[in-house]
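Translate sequence into structure tokens.
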Amino acid sequence: MRISDILILGILLGSFLYYFLGKKFKSFKIKRILATARKGERDAISFLNKEGYDIIEIQKKHPIIIYIDDKPHSSYVQADFIVQKANKKYIVEVKTGKKARATTALVRRQLLEYYLVFNPRGILLLDMEKGTLKKIEFQWSKQQFSFSSLIFAVVSGLTIGILLWRFFDYLN
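Result follows.
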């Protein structure tokens, strides 16, 4: 066997080992994240009960249809918990670690999706690492026609027009 053959064999074995170990590491990391999430959701049940919420459903899936170029595609939105307190229904999203901030784009979009699909009284974000439960609400302004803005524009336009007319009339 020549040195070049050994070198090529070493590169192939090294590449295979790198690929195989990389996959195993990713798999291990994902399993660890899922285990943490499952534990967080199990602990969430007792946390929510202590806070006075009755658990109605766990991992509730709500079917939705998405139209792409007029073709329907079935999907679903899944909430961690649906709870009730004082006859008000809430969706609870359980997060752990850095993902528990409602201000991050992905979390905000997920919570807004729950709000639009499930139409609850509110959204609750439960951070199991910190042991905090935050109520999330959404508000956005609707573009409405404003008569006051229209009246202001008309009056301002008329005033400027009259002033300009008087100015040019004065010059002549």
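Note: Residues 102 and 108 are 5 Å apart (CA to CA).
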